[in-house]
Amino acid sequence: MPLDAKKIAEIYQSKVAVGYDFSMGHFFPVYKKRAFEESSLKPGDRVLVFCCGTGADFGPILEKIGPQGLLVGVDFSGLMLAQAAKKVEQNRWENVELVEADVTDFAYTGGASFDIGVCTLGLSIIPDYRRAYANLLAHIKKSGELIIGDMQLATGWKSIFNPWTLLMAKKFGGTPEGHQNAQDLVQQMAKDLVEVKKREFFLGAYFYLVGTLR
């Protein structure tokens, strides 16, 4: 399946979205949490989460920023956000705002007022991923931090597992083009960020990157 915005929208307005936590909840949380632990997240920080989906990242982020911080989650899927809203209500998180919007043109009234920008498992399925990435950066304060996690195609001997990676990701909109976009984005982030830390897991199929804006 080529990277197509209409098809991606159809996927995340279907039963895939409803069962997302059940399908994906066993694979990535431990690695995402490592990224947040390796970041500079601290009490009182304002955090913007693009492609927040069902709010799977909210818990470990809120543990770091505390009740005095702010988390704004943005996603285009109302079905995904409905599940995120349930998490917010069940956990009685009072410092979370959910916004249904396209991350390529989302605009927060406070402008570049966030300390940390986060996007995990999102940019590789967005056709105009560079615009989404640039928009996330535009909302982060100078010397703020960026935390990105996504799928990629492994290199070297690990590339023998790439067909499995593509098969697993296809249901969620993953494509060879999207995984290549993620690798291209890593190169761009190396130019835009300093003190960059990149870690790889699942035999190179998943990575996270933490860095500070120049």
TrEMBL record:
Protein name according to UniProt: Methyltransferase domain-containing protein
Transmembrane segments: none
Source taxon at top rank: Bacteria
Molecular function, one GO term: methyltransferase activity
Organism ancestry: Bacteria, Pseudomonadati, Pseudomonadota, Candidatus Lambdaproteobacteria
GO terms (BP aspect): methylation
Pfam families xref list: Methyltransf_25
Keywords: Methyltransferase, Transferase
Keyword Methyltransferase: yes
Methyltransferase domain: residues covered: 47-144
